[in-house]
Amino acid sequence: MNIALTTGWVGALLITSQLTFAQQSVTLPTDTTKSSTPAINISGSAKAEKKELKYNLNESGTHFFKATFLNQAWLQFNQSNPGSTVVGVPKDNTFSIGLRRTRMQLFGQISDHLFLYFQFGMNNFNYLNGGFNQTASSQRKIQAFFHDALAEYLVFKNKNYLNIGAGLTIVNGLSRFSAPSVGTIMSMDVPVFAQATTDQTDEFTRKLSVYARGQVGHLDYRVAVSDPFPIQTNGAALPTYGPNSIFALKGHEKQFQGFFMWQFFDKEAHQAPGYNTGTYLGAKKIFNLEAGFITQKNAMVRVPVAGDTVYQALNLWSIASFLDIPLNKEKGTAINAYLGYFHTDYGDNYLRFNGAMNPASDIPASQRPGGLGGTQGNSFPMFGTGSVVYGQFGYLLKRDLFGEGNGTLMPYVQAQLANYQRVANTLGVYNIGLNYLIKGHNGKLTLDYQNRPYYAPSSNTSQLSAAGRRGQLILQYQIFI
Known about the structure:
- Keywords: Signal.
- This protein has 481 residues and is an all-beta fold.
- It has a domain at 142-356 and 364-471: Porin (Beta Barrel).
- 3% of the residues lie in helices and 46% in strands.
- The chain has one helix at 3-16; strands spanning 53-56, 64-79, 85-86, 89-90, 93-109, 114-125, 145-154, 163-169, 207-216, 219-227, 246-247, 255-263, 286-302, 310-328, 333-345, 351-354, 380-384, 386-396, 408-420, 427-439, 443-455, 466-480.
- The strands form 3 sheets. Strands 2-5-6-7-8-9-10-12-13-14-15-18-19-20-21-22 form a 16-stranded antiparallel beta barrel.
- The radius of gyration is 23 Å and the shape is globular.
């Protein structure tokens, strides 16, 4: 199925169903047992807008089918890591235009017990055609793919105690940012390190899985058994055996994962499988304590000098707190805060550089820190064996700060502090940003500045030392319905 055919089919469905376009403040409703579609007043006297693209399958609206659309465009200025080249030409800095994410969701509660969910789209689409497969220069027309395709069975009618599902899904363990609702995140981008195996043994964080999830009292849980993809199919050059751990090139084991939240106040959205809202912009009072894990036997491998091949388990876990509450409901002010600790064991001395929508195409082999690939452009050691502390804080200013209907601002800060075995000192990546919420998450501009370390070539390939710092400035325009 190509994207044009899919889009045409969606358009026909919406027109036939006489759906009304409007805007939506959060990704999905929190309660599948009630209709979220307001009555339509054809006289035109109603003040409320319709909040979603939704076709009711029964009169009460408990059975329905919906569509959402998201586009995030980036204007990206980057101070490149030393040695970076762009299509063979050395470049100290770059200015690029790209699409960070372009997505559509199609989903619905088909009956009291049956739920269907699809997500289709593309990521990291810039002049380099986005992603890791830089050699596939003809790939610019086939970037879109199914992110999610699953069916779910609601065991107890009108209750979310136990939902059982299977398919291609982002239902993940580890943390809330391992399965983020990208249309509702507070910051310009998510902390990608939390999507621990992204594009290594998964499809952009999604895996073929069977899972169970639910909400029982204050507890929100999800557990999954996943069938990871071989690293040979990720489209990048294969890693080579050595004393430092890499993803295994032989064998195949199932992956087990779980994520648990204790919700002290309001319950979080639970309809879309696995996705966690970034901020409710003061619409809910949320305080959660969270914990998660991912484990897989013999997922990693290394070959010590003058030694036998050693297979190691992948073991990741985290604990965190999440706060998203209104301060003054009359003014509309709110805060968002997150603090988490991540234990990341990928085997001895595992390390991988990564940069979101990297604007540089290569770096000479002689200038690659530790002999590692992917160190050009805006990349830094994002994934590694060790530990990470991640925190963020944002403050939502008063409603209609610029006058009625003209939106408001939400400034934020982020910090990622990592101690990895192959990095000599604590790695710090810092972001400061400002959201202009034109109409909540449905239309917003985000200006974000990131400061990160870079690493120089060294004769000591077992441990890297920072050689300086670089910056990146991005303006994002998001449209979401």
